[in-house]
Amino acid sequence: MLKPGPDHPITLEPARTRWRAFFAGHVIADSDNALILSEAGYDPVVYFPREDVAMEYMSRQEKVTHCPYKGDASYYTILMDGEFAENAVWSYETPYEAMEPITGRLAFDRSKGIEVYPVDDAAVNPHHRDGAPNVDAVVQHTDAGDGQSQAERWEPNVETPGAQEGGVR
């Protein structure tokens, strides 16, 4: 085990913006809680919390690699809409102490056709910070494809026009 230092600096910072990962025409990760790992000699890597990743499209693989600074990484293959990216996602389940904040988070290999990019949170969720319902809660109340709402129905917040108003126009 090696520790990051002046000869091999590694920094971890909370992302200042929302990040997404996109594969096969779908957003497979979306988070406003990502971490950016910058390591000497490498491009920065975005680590997403597992709860912000569509894990139903991930299949754990046997592949394991070792980093003397971070520990052992396990890998996942993505299968979505008939397209797959083999060993395109990695995670440090039990990293070394200096890298503890990335425990269980997932990173994506951009060379395998996965686009990882920052998103303007205000553009995709303009009321996120002002107390309005967030976009995810609204989406859960849409049709799941079988005619049913994906979450319990909200109480109506409008009234149906009555007879004195001439009924529905």
Order of strands side by side in the largest beta sheet?
6-7-8-9
- The number of helices is 2
Helix content: under 10%
Radius of gyration: 21 Å
Beta-strand share of residues: 35-45%
Q: Are there runs of 5+ residues with pLDDT below 50, and where? A: none
Judged by helices, strands and strand pairing, the structural class is mainly beta
For the secondary structure, the number of strands is 10
* Main sheet summary: 4 strands, antiparallel
Distance between the termini: 73 Å
- Mean pLDDT, nearest integer? 84
The SSE order reads EEEEEEEEEEHH
* Morphology call: globular
Chain-wise SSE layout:
Blueprint: E1 10-14, E2 18-23, E3 26-31, E4 35-39, E5 45-47, E6 58-67, E7 71-80, E8 83-91, E9 106-108, E10 115-119, H1 121-124, H2 135-139
Antiparallel strand pairs: 1-4, 2-3, 2-10, 4-5, 6-7, 7-8, 8-9
Detailed description of the structure:
The longest helix has 5 residues, at 135-139. With 169 residues, the protein is mainly beta. The chain has two helices and ten strands. It has a four-stranded antiparallel β-sheet with strand order 6-7-8-9, with no helix packed on it. A hairpin with a 2-residue loop joins strand 2 (18-23) and strand 3.
Summarize it:
With 169 residues, the protein is mainly β. The protein is built from two helices and ten strands.
